[in-house]
Amino acid sequence: MIELRGKQKRYLRAAAHDMRPLFSVGKQGLTENWLDQLGEAMEKRELFKVNILSNSDVTPAEVKSFIERQTTIQVVQTIGHTLVLFDQATQKENRHYSVAVQKI
Prior knowledge:
Layout: H1 6-16, E1 23-25, H2 32-45, E2 47-52, H3 60-70, E3 74-79, E4 82-86, H4 97-103
Parallel strand pairs: 1-2
Antiparallel strand pairs: 2-4, 3-4
């Protein structure tokens, strides 16, 4: 796990700016299955957004603590009901953002 500094977080926020949310948190809320799917997608992409739907019973702060407590995924930014997530891929061929982040 990379411990992110300010400049690195800024780079990741800028890289995620034009992305659309890949995952959503809805009525089912936060489940282990959802977290497993999040981890699998993180392995392939390293950086993406999660949207918290208006019908969800959880707050962005609850989603952030749930993800960070149970995984190595880091929440880089929270804007309204959208979170930007980052985690280094274990396979080298999937590492795009983490390579750039380590150079900053």
